[in-house]
Design brief:
The protein is an all-alpha fold. It has a domain at 24-61. 66% of the residues lie in helices and 0% in strands. The longest helix is centred in the middle third of the chain and has 33 residues, at 9-41. 0% of the residues are buried. The model has no long low-confidence stretch (mean pLDDT 81).
């Protein structure tokens, strides 16, 4: 719609990437503490993994 109204393709791409990055950042800000807290709650189910394992938390982020 924006391109049809005359916006440059680079402006539309920048807008889409900015919104996507904002959503990813917000999800990480909310999700990582929640994942860390829940990992302590479910630590009995974690096999050979500590609740604060950075590799496991990084995998959750992906």
């Amino acid at each position: 719609m924006r391109i049809a109204l005359g916006a440059a393709a680079s402006d539309v791409l920048r807008l889409v990437l900015r919104r996507g990055a904002w959503q990813v950042g917000l999800g990480l800000i909310i999700g990582m503490p929640a994942a860390f807290g829940l990992s302590h709650l479910f630590s009995g189910f974690l096999y050979k993994t500590s609740p604060g394992d950075p590799v496991a938390l990084g995998g959750i982020a992906l």
